[in-house]
Amino acid sequence: MTQAHPDSPDDTPASANPPPHRGWRPLRWLAAGALALLLALAAFAGWVTASGQGFAWAWRTAAELSHGRLGVGAVRGTLWQGFELQRLRWQDPAQRLEVERLRLDWQPSALWRGTLHLTRLELGHVRLTSLAAAAPAAPPQLPASLALPLTVVLDRFALASLTLLPGDVRLYDVAGSYRYQGGRHQVQLARLNSPWGGGGAALTLADARPFALSGTLAARGTLEQVAIKADLALAGSLADLQARGTVAGRGLLAEVSGRFDPFAASALNRFRRLDVRVGGVNPQALQPSWPKARLNFAVYAEPAAGATVAGGLSLINSEAGALSAGQLPLAFLAGEFRVRGQRLTLNALQAQLAGGGRVALSGTLDAQALALTARLQDVALRALHASAPDQTVGGTLTLGGTPAQPTLSAALQSRQLALEARVAREPGAAQALRLERLQLTAGAGRLALSGRVELQQARRFELSGVLEKADPARFLKGAPVGDLNARLTARGQLAAPLAATLRLQFAPSRLSGAPLTGRAELDLQPGRLKRLDADLRLADNRLQAAGAYGAAGDRLKLLIDAPNLRLLGPGFTGRIGGQLDLAGTPKLPLLSANLKAERLALPGGVGVEALTLAGELQADTASPFRVQLAAQQLRLGEFGASTLRLNAVGQRNRHRIELDGRFTLKQRPYALALRANGGLAAGSTQWQGTLQTLQLAGQPGLTLLAPASLSVGPQRLELGAARLAMLGGQVELQQLRRDASGLLNTRGRAAGLRLAELAPLLALPLQQTLVVSGDWALSGRGVPQGQLNLQRVGGDVWLPGSNGRPLALELGTSRLGLRLDANRAQLELQLQSRYLNASGNGALPLAGGIDGRTPLAASLRLEVPALKALAGLAGPGLELGGQLAANVTLSGPLAAPLAYGRLDGKGLLFADRKTGLRLAEGVLEARLDGRRLLLDRLRFASGEGEALASGALDLKDRGPDATVRLSLKRFSVFDRPNRRLVVSGDSDILFVDNKLTLTGRLRADQGRVELPKQGTPQLSDDVHVVGREAPPPSALATLPVTVRLDLDLGERFRFTGQGLDVELSGVVHVSAAPGEAPAARGQVRVVKGRYKAYGQDLDIEYGTITFTGSLDNPALNVRAKRRLSPVGAGVEVGGSVAAPSVRLIADEALSERDKLSWLVLGRASVGGSDDASLAAAAGALLAGTINDRIGLFDDLGLVNQQGKTLADGTVSPAEQVVTVGRQLTRTLYLGYEYGIASASQALKMSYQLSKGWSLVLRAGTTASLETRYTLRFD
């Protein structure tokens, strides 16, 4: 038998695997946990960045973790899809940043291409407030690099407004873009606006040393209603910055140039050269809180040898004046300065002040010592400030010590006063000023003071002084003459709560010639008058006070008996007497008072003819309560009451109050009546009761319709539900409450209020009869929160019409809504009228209050559905038509907002019937860009042509300025029966200072100027008929228009008048001054035409017309001949159209008699028989002249008809014939003849076949046909 070995290889199963190692299992669990954690973190990150809820949670959490530094309101959007933050706030000990709204949109996918692409970054109103002075920083260092790790593109950024406080620097409506690419930072500011104007800027900066840069800034704006233009150019690098700028305007010029090293270790070494020259600037126009002046100054500075900067300055103020008048009292300043290290040296800086005073300033200032001396000479104090003493002083002011412990010494003298003073800062950390000595002397009088005051925390002070033989009239204007002697000591603290201890002791003194004695001691502690002991006497006038007030058990007694107040000085008259006992505490006062005054007058316009006051208030609830006041002829500034009576009688907890009075306010009489029942609760000063009656009679008036609960006291002021009749309607006051903390709550509604009844107190610029209703609900401290709604329910508004008659707007639905929250005010407007429809909304930030510089954000939509309705506003004879629409957004300061949007018009019509100007089928396309209106396209059709205009209009406070390019194509300027002008060409229109100037060159495609026929006599322009209305002027006659145009008359310009009917060609310069008729200068030639003289139509052979003034009265130089005349008879015309001079002419040498005969009769004069013919012709000439004036016929007068034998043998005798006819063409004549002797009548037609041959046809009493051939011989 064979033994088997258990470890034999054959016994091991071939398919068996070794068991798993147990050490890998924890690693697997760890890996799974890490993976789960990563997935959880990824999911959490996705929730935070990709969901609206998670993104908002992240901001709220960040705000909570910031311990109050970060605050954020509403959060919308996500990180990946863009987000918006409302009311973002950050605050640290140094500053507070408030952002009304932040909107960011970007393209995350661009990160894969190495680009951070922001498509939009919008900020609302931003407010940055510095809360504490920044700690001194280390000198700036030039950075090693400005490179960014990836390309950055910001397509558009916008900022509604930026306010920097406490400097109150404001910017509005900033918009631009940013790009970092190719090693360069590029910033483009498309818009940048400030209270003075707006502009744009561009800056390029390299990202590597020396950081080369270039930039420009261009701005336009107004300063003191004057347009200004500013330009700034930057070049060089950050280590060597070069700047040059100019500011120019009418009467203002400023130039600045320099080289700078912004990273120099010393601030004084940060410029290498600086030149500033300014002329005509007013500091108040730059900052309203600064004084007014007109400054011309120059400053230069440049490095000198030995690390020294040397320079000089000069200043001239042409409008120097007193500070009390808001002016700068410095008239002239000039001198040189030198800076070495930290030392500033002034070398005899000379200044001249308003009133002629002079100051010489010299000395040094550095970190170790101060040594500066100002020498004053002939300085008139009243010229510096109107309330200063009328003294002219001289002397010295010396600044010494060190910057840490400066001292100021003064030694000034005038003819009546002398001042010696020394003030020093005490050493140590107490930060206190010590008044070592202040002595003011006037004659024999002297005032001496000394003391100290701390500058931090409680601001404790100590003061002691002596008054010896002092005359108040020498120190203060209007003070009484006196001889005062007294000692004064005071100590306490100036910071709240105020505390002071005062001791005043008069030695024997006199005031206004009367003896003055007395003393006064006061100990004022926080919340309590601990002690008051005073006894002052001026002749028979006496004031006594003794006791304490403010704590339980205190009692204060006051007694006054002053029968002669005039002794106190000018402005005091009358007498006053009475006593007051005051006890208890401010929360529960107890008093008993009696006071009487007669013919009392106090400075400041306060006075009363007669006044009595009696009152009693005790602690017990059932104790008597009595207050009685009666006053006659009370004056308090502009308020005056003829009678005033207050009577409150009863017990402390239950009494009745009656108040009656008659007074005037803004020179209008009123009568007041008030009745109330109520009382003071035990241990309280809060009055509670019922207002039974309240009636104010006057314009406007007020009446309480039903009793209302009333609570008045230090805890709260509350009026219960009340109904009031006022302004012709009713006001329902549902709640009015204000507590001790200043929290206000009020709500109610009003119906049927007539705003016209407010006219005595509120002068509105327009006539109106509006009736409004509304409601409100407001609450909050300071600026309330809530809403206010108003709507028109009746009435209308009238605008001043062109003929002096008001024009009603015919208002429809009109609403105004105001919403107030903690941060902003939102306004909604809707207005409908016959002429205009408007709707809009806007918002104003409420932080810091509202003034003219508060940033505005608003949108407005305007529609004028029919301009035809506005014709009544434009003037008589003017026709308007078409539609206008505007969509506008407003931003910038509230007092001068910036407007952006579109203005469109269609179907526009403008026609003036007086001039014949008609612009039709108008189309307007314009854009508002800040304070500019950009006219993209304005087209009008007139006749067969059109007018196209484009340009820009600058909207300014003093009036708009405009520049417009006008292109005309067959444009009909005038289109009347006697005056028509069709032109083509280009011109420029300039509107500056409310004056319109038109320049350019135009060609007349067609023109006709026809003088009116002189018919019946007319009155001169300076003759006015009583009872007859003057004819209205042209709507364009009053426009301030200046015209300078070159007018090419073209080939179809016709002029007719005073016998002339011609076509002209040439160039005329047309001009017009405001309010005057157009004038013309130039010479044109006659292409063809006729001239009517002596009853004949003459053909013009040549002629020139010279315009030297009036458009309708040019000078003439014309040669005209009778048509088909054998001798060439005619005339030469000179003079002017209104007063022509005529000379007879002929081709042959003829006498004046023959020339006239050939011109009038068409043949030569042959003796006496022609005298009758010429006489008849003269009659015809007279008749023809009259006819020319009237313009009915070409032929009117008497002619001689020769005797002749007709074809049937009948003899027609010679006779005179009346003839009336019209030359239809050059060869065809049609007339009517009437024989005076035979009463024969005939219709005559004559046709000129050639120069000597004519055909005549008559039809009438007899009919005939004749042909004539004329042969002339001598």
Task: Give a summary of the structure in a few sentences.
With 1274 residues, this protein is mainly beta. The chain has 8 helices and 79 strands.
Structure, explained:
By secondary structure, this protein is mainly beta. Among the domains are: 266-274 and 291-385 and 392-414; 421-535; 548-681 and 689-697, no CATH class; 723-757 and 770-777 and 784-793 and 810-847 and 855-862, no CATH class; 1171-1274, no CATH class. 7% of the residues lie in helices and 61% in strands. The protein has 8 helices and 79 strands. The strands form 4 sheets. The protein has a 68-stranded mixed sheet that branches. A hairpin with a 3-residue loop joins strand 2 (75-78) and strand 3 (82-91). Helix 1 (24-50) crosses helix 2 (52-65). The longest helix is centred in the N-terminal third of the chain and has 27 residues, at 24-50. The model is unreliable at 1-16 and 1178-1193 (pLDDT under 50).
Topology:
Elements: H1 24-50, H2 52-65, E1 70-71, E2 75-78, E3 82-91, E4 95-107, E5 115-130, E6 151-165, E7 169-181, E8 184-194, E9 197-206, E10 213-223, E11 226-236, E12 241-249, E13 252-260, E14 271-281, H3 283-286, E15 295-304, E16 308-317, E17 330-340, E18 343-353, E19 358-365, E20 370-380, H4 381-384, E21 392-401, E22 406-413, E23 417-425, E24 432-442, E25 445-454, E26 460-470, H5 472-475, E27 482-493, E28 499-511, E29 514-525, E30 528-538, E31 541-549, E32 555-562, E33 573-585, E34 588-602, E35 606-617, E36 624-636, E37 639-651, E38 654-665, E39 668-680, E40 687-697, E41 702-704, E42 708-712, E43 716-719, E44 722-726, E45 729-739, E46 744-754, E47 767-768, E48 771-780, E49 785-794, E50 797-800, E51 806-808, E52 814-820, E53 824-832, E54 837-845, E55 855-864, H6 871-874, E56 878-893, E57 898-912, E58 917-930, E59 932-942, E60 945-954, E61 961-976, E62 979-992, E63 995-1010, E64 1041-1048, E65 1053-1057, E66 1060-1072, E67 1079-1093, E68 1096-1110, E69 1115-1122, E70 1130-1135, E71 1140-1145, H7 1152-1160, H8 1168-1190, E72 1195-1201, ...
Parallel strand pairs: 5-6, 63-64, 63-65
Antiparallel strand pairs: 1-3, 2-3, 3-4, 4-5, 6-7, 7-8, 8-9, 9-10, 10-11, 11-12, 12-13, 13-14, 14-15, 15-16, 16-17, 17-18, 18-19, 19-20, 20-21, 21-22, 22-23, 23-24, 24-25, 25-26, 26-27, 27-28, 28-29, 29-30, 30-31, 31-32, 32-33, 33-34, 34-35, 35-36, 36-37, 37-38, 38-39, 39-40, 40-41, 40-42, ...
